[in-house]
Specification:
Elements: H1 2-33, E1 38-44, H2 63-71, E2 73-79, H3 85-94, H4 98-101, E3 117-118, H5 133-137, E4 143-147, E5 166-168, H6 204-218, E6 224-229, H7 241-248, H8 260-282, E7 289-295, H9 325-328, E8 329-335, E9 344-346, E10 350-351, H10 355-366, H11 403-407, E11 418-422, E12 433-438, E13 441-446, E14 451-456, H12 472-489, E15 495-496
Parallel strand pairs: 1-6, 1-7, 2-9, 2-10, 4-5, 4-6
Antiparallel strand pairs: 2-8, 3-15, 7-8, 11-12, 12-13, 13-14
Length: 502
């Protein structure tokens, strides 16, 4: 009898304790949801449109990203603002086209002294006069952290000068010297990554995941913007060797993706995503965090016209550094709990410039008690030049808010077209060009001789049938639209290279 009474008492205590913990946990989640939503941007370096399980890869395994897609919305017509990284990253952070920012190539870019055209005197940093999303959010009580690749200029233009309270691993480097501790090669290292807490053999992507989780734990009681632009899956191709053999055994004739080392790099990237999403769950923040997952440009597939890259973007044409879809079409997944329909798919064309105004609308819509844009947050970083962070209406933002399509994937955005301007050469295949997409139509203008190509992407996603001659009137209309846009944003054009004769 005593034993039975003890057992009954034990289970009553357990039930009561569980109830108390459940009430406390529920109260914690309620408090979290009463404040503005946390913002998490995950930007993968050089990840191709097809490099995920949920986008159709037949080799790469990405269970954590696939889970995010099941919980949120997957976009099929998402684009980077440029075919290379630095301009795309500048556009993400400001909502402006690279042509307006005059950051139009990867920093510091290629020198092509024998090329037909001379590239313009473009800007090799994100200007301090620009307002980043971190600065826009500061007056609303947000603290912002950067973990990963920055690649937007030399020292003096790094994240802590651009509104971020914390910068881990962000500097001028476009790729890590090595993915293994101490992340050094040929006397090059990541100057903003503390080596003391690391251990020999630690993998860089795991380290960045741990740093991101630590910030989430540290900031769990306040609104935060966590910008997580990974170095993965950019070269050097240094995967965890233990992963490689497993993928090598799975490769069969006829598969699209056949590089086991790159597959292992993708797996480590996916594990980073899983760790960060799990941390949001652990600290009761998942339901009040708006998550974006995307890439900065297309996957690296070709160099100097030859398929020499680690991945394959088919059915898209070419890849990173080209004027075609393989260079600019990227994955985009958005999870906004309670708003984005789980497992939904959106076919509306969107671009990286849209993330900035999307977050601005979400924060302004969900929290009526936010400080006005002109009131700096107490103790927060001051605006670099004026001392105040301007409101969205004061900025020349080129993107549009994605809130309508996040609520309804069949909605349409109030936008006429998307534009690109790349007055540079790249070994991925690009010569200086501009492009416009309006509806299903994409026109590319090549600046060396100003000829155009026209494709119907709804019928020809691989851009194999140039319709510029058959649809001459449409091509002329789109070319005029492209020229007017270029003039409106002040795009710098390349010029004919002077010739010298004897």
């Amino acid at each position: 009898m005593l034993l039975r009474a003890w057992r009954v008492g034990f289970w009553l205590l357990a039930v009561l304790t569980a109830g108390v913990w459940r009430d406390c946990w529920g109260a914690a989640e309620a408090r979290a949801e009463a404040r503005p939503p946390n913002i998490l941007w995950i930007v993968i370096d050089d990840l191709g449109w097809r490099d995920l399980g949920c986008y159709g890869s037949d080799l790469y395994e990405t269970p954590h990203v696939d889970r995010l897609a099941r919980q949120g919305m997957r976009f099929t017509n998402a684009y980077s603002a440029c075919t290379v990284c630095s301009p795309s990253r500048a556009a993400l952070l400001t909502g402006k086209y690279p042509a307006r920012l005059r950051v139009t190539d990867w920093i510091p870019g290629h020198e092509r002294p024998n090329a037909k055209l001379e590239i313009p005197d473009w800007t090799k940093w994100l200007g301090l006069e620009e307002t980043t999303l971190a600065e826009l959010l500061a007056p609303a009580g947000y603290i912002s952290g950067h973990v990963g690749k920055w690649h937007l200029g030399p020292k003096g233009y790094w994240p802590t000068e651009q509104g971020f309270a914390v910068n881990i691993a962000g500097c001028d480097l476009g790729q890590p010297p090595s993915y293994y501790w101490p992340y050094t090669r040929a006397n090059r290292r990541i100057p903003t990554l503390d080596l003391t807490p690391a251990t020999e053999g630690q993998y860089l992507t795991d380290r960045l995941a741990d740093e991101a989780v630590a910030l989430i734990r540290r900031w769990k009681s306040q609104p935060f913007f966590l910008y997580l632009p990974t170095y993965q899956v950019h070269m050097p191709l240094e995967p965890k060797e233990a992963y490689v053999a497993r993928y090598a055994q799975r490769i069969r004739p006829g598969m699209q993706h056949t590089n086991p080392r790159y597959a292992a790099m993708v797996q480590s990237m996916d594990e980073l995503v899983g760790k960060v999403l799990d941390a949001l769950e652990e600290y009761g923040l998942a339901r009040n965090t708006l998550v974006f997952f995307t890439s900065d440009n297309g996957g690296l597939s070709h160099l100097n016209g030859v398929k020499r890259g680690p991945t394959d973007n088919s059915p898209l044409r070419l890849g990173k550094g080209s004027s075609y879809e393989g260079g600019v079409r990227v994955p985009l997944i958005v999870r906004w709990p309670g708003v984005t329909p789980p497992g939904s798919v959106c076919h509306e064309p969107v671009m990286g410039i849209d993330l900035f105004p999307t977050v601005a609308e979400v924060v302004g819509t969900l929290s009526a008690s936010l400080a006005s844009p002109g009131e700096p947050r107490a103790g927060g970083p001051a605006k670099k030049r004026s001392g105040k962070a301007p409101g969205l209406s004061q900025l020349q933002v080129d993107g549009v808010s994605l809130v309508p399509v996040l609520r309804d994937p069949k909605a349409r955005l109030a936008r006429e077209a998307l534009f690109w301007h790349y007055p540079h050469y790249h070994p991925g295949g690009a010569t200086p060009y501009g492009a416009v997409r309006a509806g299903p139509w994409k026109l590319i203008e090549f600046y060396e001789d100003m000829h155009v190509e026209l494709y119907n992407l709804a019928e020809d996603i691989g851009e194999q049938r140039d319709l510029a001659v058959q649809k001459a009137h449409l091509a002329a209309s789109l070319r005029d639209k492209l020229h007017r846009w270029r003039q409106g944003v002040g795009a710098e054009m390349p010029s004919a290279r002077p010739t010298t004769g004897k």
